[in-house]
Amino acid sequence: MIQLPFERQEYQERLTKIRAEMRRRELELLVINDVANQHYITGYDGWSFYTPQTVLVPVEDGAEPVWLGRAMDAAGGLLTAWMKPENVVGFPEPYVQRADRHPMDWIAQWIVSKGWGGRRIGIELEAYYYSPKAHARLVAGLPNATFVDADLLVNWIRSVKSPAEIGYLRKASRLAEAAVTAAYDAIAPGVRECDAIAKIQAAQVAGSADYAGDITALPPTILGGENASAPHIMWSDRRFGKDETIALELAGVCRRYTAGLARTVQLGRASPQVTETAKAVLEGMEAVLSSIRPGVLAEDVELAWRGVIERYGLKKESRIGYSIGVAYPPDWGEHTISLRPGDKSVLQPGNVIHSILGMWMDGWGIEVSETILVTATGAETLTNLPREIHAKA
Predict the structure, then answer these.
(1) What's this model's pTM, rounded to 2 decimal places?
(2) CA dihedral angle for residue 232, residue 233, residue 235, residue 241, rounded to 10 degrees
(3) Do the beta carbons of residue 333 and residue 355 sit within 8 Å?
(4) SS3 for the chain, per residue?
(5) Which tens digit of pLDDT belongs to each residue from 187-223?
(6) Rounded to whole angstroms, how far apart are CA atoms 216 and 269?
(7) Model confidence pLDDT, tens digit, residues 49-97
């Protein structure tokens, strides 16, 4: 018995929205290469995307999407995807990692066999695991098709969450809080970064008595010492030092739905610069939360933040938030809404934003973030942990 994350009706509602946009763009077939979008449409869940894998959505109402991937992973599709078995299709093993042939050769032939070889095809061209060679071989195998870039078509539909999706995000938020709490307990002068990470990951994956935690699309980030000036550097066996400011960027994940949560730990004594910057960041988060509501532009939320930090003489070039939801490695952002100048996306109920206010300085950094639901009247923080710097002797 397949244990789907959602009722089948929810998948049908998603397809209805996708097909409406396909018709608006005059697309007859959609080729989904983004792994998170594949999961969103079909429920398929497996670590199989290291070989070519795609989902096809024909425009006809009532037609099921088709998952195509490695033959040995089709068994996983039968266990996790909601479609009929004939719509979970595996390409033969002789097409796996061979120089003289490519899985997209076989997939192109399969598309032709369905009578779809001459269609106007929308295709995701910016997906992480869709290579230039894969695209070239698919195009070569479908000479009568017309290809149109449909990047982010599904992502924008995903950006408005259903009540069931928000339920998973609430559970993910509890796991994110557990991960940060584990970091607070583990980090101390003399402790190795890798040992702290091990305890953080245990908290992320163990989940709760009622639900499991999943692997995060981004690994845990601990930024201390000289590494604090580089926001995405990885951990090592370096030991935390006395009077060190440590920025944490962590997450919790439930059924692939991700809630991000960043906080800062202070070992020993904080410098006046750290204390003053923390004040600016915390005040800035209040400004962000106060400005989020339906109808507001994404750029105006960033403007509220910038107005605060400018009064403190600070400047931040990078965006301060992005839409978040279902995610697979290597990224948990949805690539749609960004809180930054020039982004005129209109916030609406059901959007979920990870607002991360990171200030990375020379030799230290501060991070504070929240996963925020846009409600009918304003904003709700799904993550709930004190934002002040966590001080440890």
Answers:
(1) 0.96
(2) -100
(3) no
(4) CCCCCCCHHHHHHHHHHHHHHHHHCCCCEEEECCHHHHHHHHCCCCCCCCCCCEEEEECCCCCCCEEEEEHHHHHHHHHHCCCCHHHEEEECHHHCCCCCCCHHHHHHHHHHHCCCCCCEEEECCCCCCCCHHHHHHHHHHCCCCEEEECCCHHHHHHCCCCHHHHHHHHHHHHHHHHHHHHHHHHCCCCCEHHHHHHHHHHHHHHCCCCCCCCCCCCCCEEECHHHHHCCCCCCCCCECCCCCEEEEEEEEEECCEEEEEEEEEEECCCCHHHHHHHHHHHHHHHHHHHHCCCCCEHHHHHHHHHHHHHHCCCCCCCCCEEEEEEEECCEEEEEEEECCCCCCCECCCCCEEEEEEEEECCCCEEEEEEEEEECCCCEEECCCCCCCCEEEC
(5) 999 999 999 999 999 999 998 899 999 999 999 999 8
(6) 32
(7) 999 999 999 999 999 999 999 999 999 999 999 999 999 999 999 999 9
